[in-house]
Amino acid sequence: MLSPAPSKLIGRSPPFLHALALMERMAHCEAPVLIQGETGTGKELAARAIHYHSARREGPFVPLNCGAVPEALIESELFGCERGAFTDARQARSGLVAAAVGGTLFLDELDSLPLRAQVSLLRFLQDYRYRPVGGTRECTGDVRIIAAASPRLNEMLNTGAFRDDLAFRLNVLLLEMPPLRERAGDARILADHFIARHARQHDRPLRRLHAQSLRWLEAYPWPGNVRELDNRVQRALLLSDDEELLLDPGAMPAARPAAADAHDDTVHAFNEARERALQCFERDYLQRLMQATDGNVTHAARLAGKERRSLGKLLKKHGIKDDPLVAPLHPSSGA
């Protein structure tokens, strides 16, 4: 079985160990891999583990975030372009497929790939041949494709927003990364790991978790999964001088107004009490959502099932963007 330490994949729960065993088997073949899972479950870490335990380990691991490249440029990003192929193509350049030859091309956020690029990728997967944008010469790309997608991919396949023939090509080997809420006991192991790592990184004394946090770790549903846990640990470590760390929202600085309301002896009218509870819920949810998505509003809207503009209005309403306590902490990988 893959060793968790070298691959930075940490946990002991049966669902996690099952995923590790699948990674090991997938590392010993060349077929395309599709990794599915919620945000923050460690999909890129899994892809790297497969690559670095495979026969291609000496070759490059080249990642591409499909949602971060403009639709008009994604084909040239993948396959390169010839000089003059489009307005800004002042010189010929190779693409990421060429950069990944002999290794692995990792397509992250596959569900963000535009339909036009889906056609080009499907054509490439048929025989691993391609032409740079604006060119006539045919090239061969000896790469292994590993793609990662959120559960949204299944909905897109049902609605026709994603080509099912491309999904069939990529979904030869399927790896599903379990969410943290289904990994009993792993939250405690991961929290201890993150405490030790961030204490070294920020030159802080090593702390232990408060007993209240230990109970809360297992009860909390972790919508942002391992990434959210990493953020919470780092935040608690940096903002507290106590010997024991409190991770639950009721103990966090941003949640103090809500805690004060809970101890208010005044009985308010029903509508007023409901409005106060709604405001507290909205702010806490939005804080957790933005932490889980590293402050990316587009990804946050997708996770919350809301329109980006609608989510933006809520964030502005609660002042989330300008609140330094909820700014993304940019954790290093290690889930």
Proportion of beta-strand residues: 5-15%
The CATH class assignment of the largest domain is Alpha Beta
Count of the domains: 2
Relevant CATH superfamily of the largest domain? P-loop containing nucleotide triphosphate hydrolases
Query: What summary fits the major beta sheet?
Result: 5 strands, parallel
Strand order, largest beta sheet? 2-3-6-1-7
The total count of helices amounts to 15
Tally the beta strands. Answer: 9
Describe the structure concisely for a colleague:
It contains 15 helices and nine strands. It has 335 residues and is of the alpha/beta class. The protein has a five-stranded parallel beta sheet. Strands 4-5 form a two-stranded antiparallel sheet.
Task: Describe this entry's structure for a reader.
It is a single chain. The strands form three sheets. A five-stranded parallel beta sheet has the order 2-3-6-1-7. Helix 6 packs across helix 8. It is globular. It is of the alpha/beta class and 335 residues long. It is 46% helix and 10% strand. The longest helix has 23 residues, at 270-292. It folds into two domains: 4-178, P-loop containing nucleotide triphosphate hydrolases (Rossmann fold, 3-Layer(aba) Sandwich); 184-326, Helicase, Ruva Protein, domain 3. The protein has 15 helices and nine strands. It has helices spanning 4-7, 14-27, 43-52, 74-79, 96-99, 115-127, 152-159, 164-170, 186-201, 211-219, 225-239, 256-262, 270-292, 297-304, 308-318, and strands at residues 33-36, 61-65, 104-108, 129-130, 139-140, 144-149, 173-176, 208-209, 244-245. Strand 4 (129-130) and strand 5 form a beta hairpin.
